[in-house]
Known about the structure:
Number of domains: 1
Radius of gyration: 17 Å
Distance between the termini: 31 Å
Order of helices and strands: HHHHH
Number of helices: 5
Amino acid sequence: MARRPRNFYAGLSFRPPESVAAAARRALERRAQQPPSNRGMTPVGLARARQLLNRQELLPQTIDRMVSYFARHAIDKQGSTWDTYGKGRQAWDGWGGDPGRRWASAVARRMDAVEQAAQRAANPSRRR
């Protein structure tokens, strides 16, 4: 099901917390220190890192993209260059790192709960 507009999820904050911004900051700084051949992140990843760094309010669909990114790329943590801050680690932190994964997952669960509550309110079960 497609996500609703942000205002549908009253009470939910779509502004990344400082810990997520810090991971994005670290990724961009470490990436800048690398030679071009060792710089990670796609254009989309760079844009996401900048959004997170600036703590911009994200769209509900962006939260879902973050959840999907982390699910696909968790395997990157087993890569040989993870500890030396290789491309995979740069990208992971660019998307908010471990704090981003926790935050996006929590927001997605809360959005799901709001949607389910609205569905129940719109279609109450009929009891006799």
